[in-house]
Amino acid sequence: PFFAGEVLKNLNKFYKRKEIQRLGAENGLDARLFHQAFISFRKYIMESSSVSADLHIILNDICCGAGKVCLLGHVDDLFPFFLRHAKQIFPMLDCMDDLRKISDLRLPPNWYPDARAIQRKIIFHAGPTNSGKTHHAIQRFLSAKSGIYCGPLKLLAHEIFQKSNDANVPCDLVTGEERVYANEDARQAPHIACTIEMCSTNTPYEVAVIDEIQMIRDPARGWAWTRALLGLCAEEIHVCGEAAAIDLVTELMYTTGEEVEVRNYKRLTPLTVLDYALESLDNLRPGDCVVCFSKNDIYSVSRQIEARGLECAVIYGSLPPGTKLEQAKKFNDPDDPCKILVATDAIGMGLNLCIKRIIFNSIVKPTINEKGEKEIDSITTSQALQIAGRAGRYGSSFKQGEVTTMHRDDLMQLKEILNEPVPPVKAAGLHPTPEQIEMFAYHLPDATLSNLIDIFVSLSQVDGLYFVCNIDDFKFLADMIQHIPLNLRSRYVFCTAPLNRKEPFVCTTLLKFARQFSRNEPLTFDWLCRHTKWPLAAPKNIKELVHLEAVHDVFDLYLWLSYRFMDMFPDAVLVRDIQKKLDDIIQVGVCNITKLIRASQSAAAPSTAEVISEDFPLSRTKRDTRAVSDRHGAKSTEALSVSVGVAEERRAKNLKAYRSAARQEDLKGHGRGSLANRLLREGLLTQEMLRQLESEWQDQHRNGRYGLGSKRDDQNSSKESGKKKK
Question: Where is the composition biased (Basic and acidic residues) (predicted)?
Answer without folding.
Answer: 710-726
